[in-house]
Design a protein that fits this description.
The chain is mostly beta strands. The chain has one domain (about 1-45): High-Potential Iron-Sulfur Protein, Chain A (Irregular), CATH 4.10.490.10. Helices cover about 0% and strands about 25% of the residues. It has a three-stranded antiparallel beta sheet with strand order 1-2-3, with no helix packed on it. β2 (about 25-30) and β3 form a beta hairpin. The chain is globular. The relative contact order is 0.36. The structure holds iron/sulfur cluster. Iron/sulfur cluster binds near residues 32, 36 and 45. Iron/sulfur cluster binds near residues 14, 32 and 45.
Length: about 50
């Protein structure tokens, strides 16, 4: 999903998010192959443990 339905839950604050050094808008996910949008979202979203 390109745009998260919830402002608090999106890929860039998901525990499974893997940021890319060369891009702010796209990164990778531990459970999907290929780039994902930082503002995207999926049903596997989980809060980051800080
Ligand atoms: S699990 Fe879903 S919400 Fe989390 S980074 Fe991957 S695609 Fe984004």
């Amino acid at each position: 999903m390109k745009q998260s339905p919830s402002p608090e839950s999106h890929c860039s604050n998901c525990q499974l998010w893997l940021p890319k050094k060369d891009s702010k808008d796209c990164g990778n996910c531990q459970i999907f192959k290929g780039p994902v949008y930082a503002q995207g979202y999926c049903t596997y979203w989980a809060p980051q443990m800080i």
